[in-house]
Design a protein that fits this description.
Blueprint: E1 4-13, E2 19-27, E3 31-39, E4 44-48, E5 53-57, E6 67-75, E7 78-84, E8 100-101, E9 104-107, E10 125-135, E11 138-142, E12 147-150, E13 161-169, E14 172-177, H1 180-183, H2 207-213, E15 221-225, E16 230-234, H3 243-261, H4 273-285, H5 295-307, H6 313-324, H7 333-338, H8 340-348, H9 350-362, H10 370-399, E17 407-413, E18 423-430, E19 442-449, E20 453-462, E21 465-472, H11 475-484, H12 486-492, E22 498-505, H13 507-511
Helix pairs in contact: 3-4, 3-10, 4-9, 9-10
């Protein structure tokens, strides 16, 4: 009997938020080629198969950018996926051992809840299945109509299902956990392992298999509901690109550019002139700075990273146009586009160039072979994450209710020559309506270091006083900083009246760097002037 595995995967999303199903049949004997897009916790990896993507728990370790092969085998009354070892991997596999992939979750090409929110109706009931995959502290949940990464605030286990209800909120879509799930307990279903599919003829497939293998979109957050003492799921930010991601992007861009200028090489991706210009602009914008070089140069580069990060693109463009249009004779759109100020902004800012690259990559067919397909998928993955991170931060800045006691924070990845380590800078802005005297400058810096691990540093300036707080993960690191932090005050005594330095062991504050809501502390100052 021919065993068939049918996957229904919405790879495209319409304006109404509905996915277009693209069925794919897998049969015993199929050999699949996949590219590793990202490696998450342990051996969990996001794989691209060309026609679809999937998270898989692999039996062997892999690295981002690696090409692997997976064979579909018949095993009794079910199918299973087996990883085919290559090169040096084969030597580490005991003779006769089958490298079965026991956890496999197809996901869509549009991993954002916002792209599908219109298909959800307030009051609608859904089932959330815990898949077992995790990413950046979030868990991949299968909601039936879609899959989303969620921050889960209640105890769960792999394979567990949770009844949910769709709720519309000011911040978008939320999913509340039904109260009965807390009292009667949740049901469990077998996890969608690669072989958990019954044999079928070519005419159909079991409803259970289709339900388990329906792929949709990740990205959500599960948080407690104080009024109901239940839990809810809301749209959350996608993880920002890492230093390694951006280093890979630089390398891939350089490869594409090299193919266009070397006569002996044939460009696999024919580049229109605007596309080539965008690639050159991105290479310049992503050029890393050395943290050990001249301090003045480093500060200037950090300023460039922040100003040209894409977060302020529309605002800077608006300001430039308003300035140019103050002339007695307004400029035409063509004249504006060609003006040096506008051209300089379009060249240096990340967002317009990333959008050009994203549009070009989305227009390319997914039937590329070998290295070409791998390069295409890697570029698409990193560019999509970069654009999404910019747009999500902009959305939070414009859509949240304006509260004068709230800060708006923008997070920036600093491109450094040491690509192994992440360096992120967060700049805080007081909401509109606050008096300038209360708009105290504040920044946070997140650094990955060889000996101290990940350290978060919060700097807050009030007048001529500076407060510095280091958040570390271990007591030993705290003791080491406390031994030397008096030198910070000595170095800055000519600039500030006082410099207060504290060190706190708090992994939670480090983990919250990219997603926390920040309010001004409950400080009150008494004006004694007469």
């Amino acid at each position: 009997m021919d065993i068939q595995w049918l996957l229904q995967m919405p790879q495209q999303v319409t304006e109404l938020g509905k996915g277009l199903l693209a069925p794919l049949a897998l049969r015993a004997g199929d050999l699949l080629a996949a590219s590793v897009l990202n490696v998450e916790k342990g051996n969990d990896a996001l794989l691209s198969f060309g026609q679809f993507k999937a998270y898989a728990r692999l039996p062997l370790p892999v690295v981002t950018g690696q090409d692997i092969q997976i064979r579909v085998e018949a095993g009794g009354e079910r199918l299973r996926m087996v990883m085919v070892p290559t090169g040096g991997q084969a030597a580490n596999v005991p003779t006769g051992e089958r490298l079965e992939i026991r956890l496999f979750e197809p996901v869509s090409d549009k991993p954002f809840l916002s792209a599908h929110s219109r298909s959800l109706v307030s009051g609608e009931s859904l089932q959330g299945r815990i898949t077992g995959f995790e990413k950046d502290g979030l868990t991949l949940v299968d909601f039936g109509k879609f899959k989303a990464f969620a921050k889960i605030d209640i105890p769960v286990r792999q394979g567990q299902t949770i009844p949910l209800t769709v709720v519309k909120t000011d911040n978008g879509i939320a999913f509340e956990v039904a109260p009965r799930a807390r009292h009667s307990g949740s049901t469990s279903v077998p996890p969608p392992i690669a072989g958990n599919v019954a044999p079928q003829d070519q005419a159909g497939v079991s409803p259970q298999a289709l339900a388990a293998l329906t792929a949709n979109r990740p990205q959500a957050e599960m948080v407690p509901n104080p009024a109901e003492k239940a839990a809810s799921v809301t749209a959350g930010p996608s993880p920002p690109p890492t230093a390694v991601d951006m280093a890979v992007l630089r390398e891939q861009i350089q490869q594409v550019l090299d193919q266009t200028i070397q006569p002996e090489k044939t460009a696999s991706l024919p580049l229109p002139t605007p596309m080539k210009g965008a690639l050159i602009n991105l290479q310049q914008a992503l050029n890393p700075a050395s943290p050990t070089g001249d301090m003045t140069t480093l500060v200037a580069r950090v300023r460039d990273f922040v100003e040209n990060s894409g977060l302020y693109f529309e605002k800077r463009l608006e300001q430039a146009i308003n300035t140019l249009q103050t002339r007695p004779t307004p400029m035409t759109p063509t004249e504006l586009a060609g003006h040096p100020v506008i051209r300089d902004l379009m060249v240096k800012d990340l967002k317009p160039n990333l959008l050009i690259l994203k549009q070009f990559l989305e227009s390319q067919p997914l039937d590329q072979q070998g290295a070409d397909r791998h390069m295409l998928e890697t570029l698409k993955s990193v560019v999509q994450r970069a654009v999404s991170h910019i747009e999500q931060q902009q959305f939070m800045a414009t859509e949240k209710p304006v509260d004068p006691d709230l800060f708006q924070a923008f997070s920036h990845l600093l491109f450094l020559t040491d690509t192994r380590r992440n360096a992120r800078l967060k700049v805080y802005y007081a909401k509109k309506g606050r008096d300038d005297a209360h708009k105290n400058p504040r920044v946070s810096l997140l650094l990955d270091m060889d000996r101290m691990g990940t350290v978060r540093t919060d700097l807050w300036m009030v007048g001529k006083d500076l407060n510095i707080t280091f958040f570390v993960k271990e007591e030993e690191v705290k003791a080491a900083i406390e031994t030397e932090h008096h030198r910070i005050g000595e170095m800055l005594k000519e600039i500030f009246n006082t410099v207060a330095v504290s060190v706190v062991v708090n992994e939670k504050r480090i983990a919250e760097f990219d997603g926390e809501d920040l309010t001004i502390p409950n400080l009150r100052q008494v004006d004694l002037s007469i």
